[in-house]
């Protein structure tokens, strides 16, 4: 519960029942209140935010426990990305994140604006066996090997705020610790392609779990190569020992449609990584939802002001950050 | 062995319940079992030594009744008093959401008893503001809730507080919209039909699809109605029959030898070869009332002397329905199997086999 | 326990554990006296209407097999890279499964060459292993390929009626 409801950290104590009670108290007509916390009475809301200056998850944002693949590499060619997304929809994924990777070791890395789904498809592909179209979100992954690389996360005015999810791939133990304890990220990628360069420390991992940050395991390397398969499984198992099967998501990083696997297949793979049946299924559904909600809290200023996400259709005036736009609309 | 390794060998939970009784036994509960399994997507029966279907059976199949698919129907339409009075209270009304996955999406089902069961994820539950209970299969971190509303309850009068609140929750608080499979069974009484009632919505009528096939030279296991567990060299067990029937329905060739390269699966022994067997499969949204009719007709098949020793009737439930038998919760872990099979013997003894997968209660 | 043995209403309940290799779960019947409500059994006189071959039928009996399926069944489909001219007959397919599924005794129950789809039977304890092995297969004869698992079940019969395949309109 603490992982998403409380948004950031334990103490905020916002449980479902409490929320409900508040809602009932408020007699609830949420159209009239601000979209930020429709369930709470204004008076209560102010009190709450004063008492707990932590970010609360905006309840207006709803995403069921559908299957999600939070790592679909944003390929340069539009066509291959389209076919990947179509394949994901066909396999039964309801949410996918297009991943943009920034590796600071390479020169001239610029954080570009995230790709918008409307650019890709005139109409989004329909998820197989459902009547709904697939939901596309954007994700930024920073590969950090030096503490200075993390500065970009602290700057406010960059395109970074336009991404729905921010992930970080720490290459040293120190940076792993920083990522777990300090950085404002939603996901920490775990190296699955080579022998772990460092051991996971329980203190940092626990800190990350407390903050609601998730760890990501990839399965595509295991499909491509048998050595990587060994590393994937052994690294996953050693992470599982430390994190006690909590806060794990599994995603693909598939570059081709044939590298994608169906949700139930991936859930079964989770057993190989040391998860239990229900944990494995959570790793591709409810945990992904928690990551998205965690990312969403970044767009709220400490849970006090929440800007309703207008559809990016208004791309012509997209220069303005979403937050400002909403302000001007008011 | 370490925990993760042990886990790799574990089998997901599943249950097969076998029951033996007599069709005319006054305590036989076969009809109750059929009636309590509300949502059925496929019915098939197998008659060994049968070339042509008797007319009586044929007519049951042809009038198995159509069902309706209503697109984008708001859930609150099912709790309005007009609907309750015209359909729910005057017959058995069945409704089940279509194209919703019980392990991912919200789903709803209206039972013929007048209970409306809404299975929703945590977000929806909190927005909905109706009282429910956590799902049995969601573990420590509850992500799914079940809301049950009794539409025929006396406390659910048009002016009651409860009714108002439900209507408000489903209409204004959190409007839920689904594609519904609908069907209505009433005894004789003429009234307005679902088709005209939902004419404003997109409604389509569908006829269950029936396929017929004759299987030649089929190896059938020998069964004795008294031997549910089988007897070595004399008869096969209920479990073996269940497997064998699966092989027949999936068109698995069983004539291969046990040393074949491809498959070592063969017909349980002892077996006999029957020259022809009649297999009929009906697919759609099939009401229990119709299945009872079908079962009755299959019993009548033995009124005249027949070569067949037994016949079978298999019924598959919906993998994504929120309930399996009665109101016991149904879930989907890796598969949502909930099915049952009747083996009716010549002397009208029967075996009933009910099978469920991981996220299901024990069948009644 | 409210049922009396006199009325013969007792329902034997066979509970068999599945883990590992119980070969004959069904033969280890332990009538542990588990019974469900049988309130109606007081002085019940069975009525048998006329019918062919009527023999006095004992009262209903009831047996339960928990996790007793020795096998699991998988409906799978093989997807290969477009334009690859690989023909895969049943024997090749089985060979492929063997090469993937290592030491597991897998049976190919049905195979359709046109659609490259098959139904496999695998011992229950090997399901997870075979499934993950199939999932992790990435290439066949140096061409990209994949297995798509359509359905798995402990009951072969369940594979013949998947409501998720019910497509209307």
From TrEMBL, chain A:
<dbReference type="GO" id="GO:0000172">
    <property type="term" value="C:ribonuclease MRP complex"/>
</dbReference>
<dbReference type="InterPro" id="IPR016195">
    <property type="entry name" value="Pol/histidinol_Pase-like"/>
</dbReference>
<dbReference type="GO" id="GO:0006364">
    <property type="term" value="P:rRNA processing"/>
</dbReference>
<protein>
    <recommendedName>
        <fullName>Ribonuclease P protein subunit p30</fullName>
    </recommendedName>
</protein>
<dbReference type="GO" id="GO:0001682">
    <property type="term" value="P:tRNA 5'-leader removal"/>
</dbReference>
<comment type="subunit">
    <text>Component of nuclear RNase P and RNase MRP ribonucleoproteins. RNase P consists of a catalytic RNA moiety and about 10 protein subunits; POP1, POP4, POP5, POP7, RPP14, RPP21, RPP25, RPP30, RPP38 and RPP40. Within the RNase P complex, POP1, POP7 and RPP25 form the 'finger' subcomplex, POP5, RPP14, RPP40 and homodimeric RPP30 form the 'palm' subcomplex, and RPP21, POP4 and RPP38 form the 'wrist' subcomplex. All subunits of the RNase P complex interact with the catalytic RNA. Several subunits of RNase P are also part of the RNase MRP complex.</text>
</comment>
<keyword id="KW-0539">Nucleus</keyword>
<keyword id="KW-0819">tRNA processing</keyword>
<keyword id="KW-0597">Phosphoprotein</keyword>
<dbReference type="Pfam" id="PF01876">
    <property type="entry name" value="RNase_P_p30"/>
</dbReference>
<dbReference type="InterPro" id="IPR002738">
    <property type="entry name" value="RNase_P_p30"/>
</dbReference>
<keyword id="KW-0698">rRNA processing</keyword>
<dbReference type="GO" id="GO:0033204">
    <property type="term" value="F:ribonuclease P RNA binding"/>
</dbReference>
<dbReference type="GO" id="GO:0004526">
    <property type="term" value="F:ribonuclease P activity"/>
</dbReference>
<comment type="similarity">
    <text>Belongs to the eukaryotic/archaeal RNase P protein component 3 family.</text>
</comment>
TrEMBL record, chain B:
<dbReference type="GO" id="GO:0004526">
    <property type="term" value="F:ribonuclease P activity"/>
</dbReference>
<protein>
    <submittedName>
        <fullName>Ribonuclease P/MRP subunit p40</fullName>
    </submittedName>
</protein>
<dbReference type="GO" id="GO:0033204">
    <property type="term" value="F:ribonuclease P RNA binding"/>
</dbReference>
<dbReference type="GO" id="GO:0000447">
    <property type="term" value="P:endonucleolytic cleavage in ITS1 to separate SSU-rRNA from 5.8S rRNA and LSU-rRNA from tricistronic rRNA transcript (SSU-rRNA, 5.8S rRNA, LSU-rRNA)"/>
</dbReference>
<dbReference type="GO" id="GO:0001682">
    <property type="term" value="P:tRNA 5'-leader removal"/>
</dbReference>
<dbReference type="GO" id="GO:0030681">
    <property type="term" value="C:multimeric ribonuclease P complex"/>
</dbReference>
<dbReference type="Pfam" id="PF08584">
    <property type="entry name" value="Ribonuc_P_40"/>
</dbReference>
<dbReference type="InterPro" id="IPR013893">
    <property type="entry name" value="RNase_P_Rpp40"/>
</dbReference>
<dbReference type="GO" id="GO:0000172">
    <property type="term" value="C:ribonuclease MRP complex"/>
</dbReference>
<dbReference type="GO" id="GO:0000171">
    <property type="term" value="F:ribonuclease MRP activity"/>
</dbReference>
UniProtKB/TrEMBL annotation, chain C:
<keyword id="KW-0819">tRNA processing</keyword>
<dbReference type="GO" id="GO:0030681">
    <property type="term" value="C:multimeric ribonuclease P complex"/>
</dbReference>
<dbReference type="GO" id="GO:0004526">
    <property type="term" value="F:ribonuclease P activity"/>
</dbReference>
<dbReference type="GO" id="GO:0001682">
    <property type="term" value="P:tRNA 5'-leader removal"/>
</dbReference>
<dbReference type="Pfam" id="PF01900">
    <property type="entry name" value="RNase_P_Rpp14"/>
</dbReference>
<dbReference type="GO" id="GO:0005730">
    <property type="term" value="C:nucleolus"/>
</dbReference>
<dbReference type="GO" id="GO:0033204">
    <property type="term" value="F:ribonuclease P RNA binding"/>
</dbReference>
<comment type="similarity">
    <text>Belongs to the eukaryotic/archaeal RNase P protein component 2 family.</text>
</comment>
<dbReference type="InterPro" id="IPR038085">
    <property type="entry name" value="Rnp2-like_sf"/>
</dbReference>
<protein>
    <submittedName>
        <fullName>Ribonuclease P/MRP subunit p14</fullName>
    </submittedName>
</protein>
<dbReference type="InterPro" id="IPR002759">
    <property type="entry name" value="Pop5/Rpp14/Rnp2-like"/>
</dbReference>
């Amino acid at each position: 519960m603490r992982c998403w409801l409380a948004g950031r950290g334990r103490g905020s104590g916002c449980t479902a029942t409490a929320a409900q009670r508040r809602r009932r108290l408020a007699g609830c007509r949420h159209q009239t209140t601000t979209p930020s916390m429709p369930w709470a009475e204004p008076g209560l809301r102010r009190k709450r935010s004063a008492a707990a200056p932590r970010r609360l998850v905006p309840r207006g944002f709803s995403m069921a426990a559908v299957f999600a693949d939070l790592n679909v590499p944003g390929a340069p060619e539009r066509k291959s990305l389209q076919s990947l997304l179509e394949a994901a929809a066909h396999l039964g994924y309801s949410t996918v994140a297009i991943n943009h990777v920034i590796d600071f070791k390479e020169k001239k890395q610029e954080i570009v604006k995230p790709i918008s789904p409307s650019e890709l498809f005139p109409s989004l592909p329909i998820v197989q066996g459902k009547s709904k179209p697939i939901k596309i979100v954007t994700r930024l992954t920073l590969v950090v090997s030096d503490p200075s690389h993390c500065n970009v996360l602290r700057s406010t005015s960059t395109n970074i705020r336009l991404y729905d999810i921010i992930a970080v791939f720490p290459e040293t133990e120190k940076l792993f610790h920083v990522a777990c304890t300090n950085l404002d990220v939603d996901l920490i990628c775990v190296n699955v392609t080579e022998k772990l360069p460092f051991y996971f420390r329980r203190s940092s991992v626990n800190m990350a779990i407390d903050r609601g940050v998730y760890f990501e395991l990839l399965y595509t390397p295991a499909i491509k190569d048998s050595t990587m398969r060994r590393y994937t499984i052994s690294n996953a198992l050693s992470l599982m020992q430390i994190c006690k099967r909590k806060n794990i998501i599994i995603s693909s990083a598939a570059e081709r449609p044939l590298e994608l696997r169906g949700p139930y297949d991936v859930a079964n793979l989770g057993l190989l990584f040391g998860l239990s049946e229900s944990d494995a299924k959570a790793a591709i559904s409810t945990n992904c939802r928690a990551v998205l909600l965690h990312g969403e809290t970044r767009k709220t200023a400490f849970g006090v002001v929440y800007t309703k996400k207008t559809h990016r259709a208004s791309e012509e005036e997209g220069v303005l950050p979403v937050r400002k736009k909403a302000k001007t609309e008011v | 062995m370490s925990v993760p390794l042990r886990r790799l060998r574990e089998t997901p939970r599943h249950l097969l319940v076998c029951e033996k009784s007599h069709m005319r036994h006054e305590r036989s509960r076969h009809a109750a079992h059929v009636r309590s399994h509300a949502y059925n997507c496929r019915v098939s029966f197998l008659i060994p030594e049968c070339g042509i279907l008797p007319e009586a059976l044929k007519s049951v199949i042809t009038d198995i009744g159509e069902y309706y698919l209503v697109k984008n129907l708001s859930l609150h339409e099912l709790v309005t008093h007009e609907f309750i009075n015209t359909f729910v209270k005057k017959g058995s009304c069945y409704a089940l959401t279509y194209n919703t996955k019980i392990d991912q999406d919200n789903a709803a089902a209206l039972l013929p008893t007048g209970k409306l069961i809404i299975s929703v994820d945590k977000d929806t539950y909190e927005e909905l503001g109706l009282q429910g209970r956590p799902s049995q299969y969601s573990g420590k971190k509850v992500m799914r809730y079940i809301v049950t509303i009794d539409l025929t309850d006396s406390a659910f009068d048009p002016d009651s507080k409860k009714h108002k609140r439900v209507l408000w929750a489903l209409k204004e608080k959190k409007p839920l919209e689904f594609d519904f499979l609908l069907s209505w069974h009433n005894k004789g009484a003429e009234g307005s039909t679902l088709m005209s009632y939902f004419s404003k919505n997109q409604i389509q009528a569908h006829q269950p699809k029936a396929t017929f096939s004759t299987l030649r030279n089929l190896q059938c296991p020998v069964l004795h109605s008294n031997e549910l567990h089988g007897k070595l060299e004399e008869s096969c067990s209920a479990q073996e029959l269940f497997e064998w029937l699966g092989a027949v329905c999936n068109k698995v060739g069983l004539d291969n030898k046990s040393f074949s390269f491809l498959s070592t699966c063969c017909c349980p022994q002892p077996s006999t070869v029957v020259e022809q067997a009649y297999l009929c499969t009906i697919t759609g949204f099939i009401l229990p009332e119709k299945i009872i009719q079908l079962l009755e007709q299959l019993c009548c098949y033995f009124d005249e002397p027949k070569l067949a020793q037994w016949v079978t009737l298999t019924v598959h439930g919906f993998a994504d329905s929120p309930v399996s038998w009665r109101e016991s919760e149904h879930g989907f872990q890796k598969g949502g199997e909930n099915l049952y099979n009747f083996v009716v013997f010549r002397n009208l003894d029967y075996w009933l086999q009910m099978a469920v997968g991981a996220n299901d209660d024990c069948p009644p | 326990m409210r049922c009396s043995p006199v009325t013969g209403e007792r329902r034997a309940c066979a509970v068999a554990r599945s883990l590992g290799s119980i070969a004959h779960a069904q033969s280890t019947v332990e009538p542990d006296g588990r019974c469900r409500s049988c309130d109606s059994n007081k002085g019940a006189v069975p009525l048998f209407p006329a019918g062919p071959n009527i023999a006095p039928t004992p009262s209903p009996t009831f047996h339960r097999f928990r996790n007793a399926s020795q096998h699991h069944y998988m409906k799978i489909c093989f997807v290969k890279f477009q334009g690859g001219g690989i023909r895969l007959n049943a024997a090749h397919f089985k060979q492929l499964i063997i090469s993937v599924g290592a030491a597991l005794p897998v049976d190919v129950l049905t195979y359709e060459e046109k659609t490259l789809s098959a139904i496999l039977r695998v011992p229950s304890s090997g399901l997870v292993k075979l499934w993950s092995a199939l999932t992790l297969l990435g290439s066949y004869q140096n061409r990209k390929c994949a297995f798509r698992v359509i359905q798995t079940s402990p009951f072969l019969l369940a594979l013949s009626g998947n409501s998720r395949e019910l497509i209307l309109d």
